[in-house]
Amino acid sequence: MQVPLIQLQCGVNSYDWGKVGKDSAAAKYAAATETNQFSIENEKPYAELWMGTHSSLPSKDVETQRSLLDLVQDNKALMSTQISDKFGEKLPFLFKVLSIRKALSIQAHPNKKLAERLHAKDPKNYPDDNHKPEMTIAVTPFDGLCGFRPLKEISHFLSTVPALRNLVGAESAKEFEASISGRETSTSAEDAQRNKQALQSAFSALMTKDKSTIAAAAKELVSSAKQDGEEFAGGGGPSNGGKELADLVVRLNSQFEGDVGLFVLFFLNYVKLEIGEAMFLKADDIHAYLSGDIIECMASSDNVVRAGFTPKFQDIPTLTSMLTYSYAPISEQKMNPVDYPYVTFNRTAYSSSSSAILYDPPIEEFSVVKTELNGEKAKATFEAIEGPSVIICTSGSGTISIGPKTKNVKAGYVFFVGATAECVLESDSETFTTFKAFCELSGKETANGAS
Q1: N or C: which terminal CB in the chain sees fewer CB atoms within 10 Å?
Q2: What is the pLDDT of residues 12-28, one digit of tens each?
Q3: Of the residues 66, 101, 194, 306, which is catalytic?
């Protein structure tokens, strides 16, 4: 039987928001695989490295040039029969590296039922019928807009940012403030539902304004941001200072002048992640990534509902109707990784404080382990799991072994590891860092919108 260790050749997408040339980690990782016949162009933006079986950019076996999709469909044991049958003989997750130079679109990803409807109605803009919960892990410092702010913060900005209040409309702003007053942090289901309806009404009032009205308001907003400094937006809210928000408005306006996204940022949490920090976004959660290099893992889908910071197709009616309108501080979306329990370190790894950290979102399709082996000959032995894995090295070098088969590894190399295979990583450098996405169904919860 073939040893289930396959080095992958992975494709990279060129989108305008990607980092340019060799500044892009996605491009550098793609170029690391010698057989990729890919050379980095110095002036070209490179946004995403894709690792998986998704038909838009499928990974291939370096040796045979067969697609990973063909391989897992020919041999169900590579993913396990249970996972292969459950997820239609496709890898249940899509693993990516994103290199972000400027803002991605304000967006959300549909839940399973909505994805099926959108795909049936408009397959050009919604290319598959799957949901897309996703997890982001920072490889370099990252910032983004993620989820709706606590209601008190939104109310504060409606009262201290005149351009925002005028755009939402004085009556809509008053209705929002009256509806949530005294209930902003209530835990009762009835109050929470009322708050969400008020938030949806105010947010929709903003998103449905015509472009010329938004552009005129944006000029006023940017002028205020440049003039007011620390005093901008009433000195900011509890989460972000006035100067921080002013700088953000000016920066985003330089990328998308006069865009509605300049006002959306007052509704959404502005979050910064340090290296190794992570957050999880359920289907139907609104977000916009702004800058940084990240590891991203998601259910295998390419469905995006967009409504700002983009020249691409925008579907504002769908976006405003599909969102959960959950509101919470960003601390509730940040993940709390834990030590991965199913790995054994050798003495060198243990004494050098090597680590294997588990990021485990509440969904079936994926989890991710970040492994750092410190020092030459530091070794980590991972117990076999009942599902497939994809491993990428992001720094350093070493080896990966499955049974008698050993392959050299360096930054950018990507490997598929089949189900029920014990996997050994060994460092031959000062620090050897890998990320492993995997699927194992036992004990996993189902995310909102999963079938």
Answers
A1: N
A2: 999 999 999 999 999 99
A3: 306
Do you know the residue count of the chain?
Answer: 451
Reported confidence tier of residue 238, pLDDT bands at 50, 70, 90? confident
The two structure tokens encoding residue 316? 């504002």
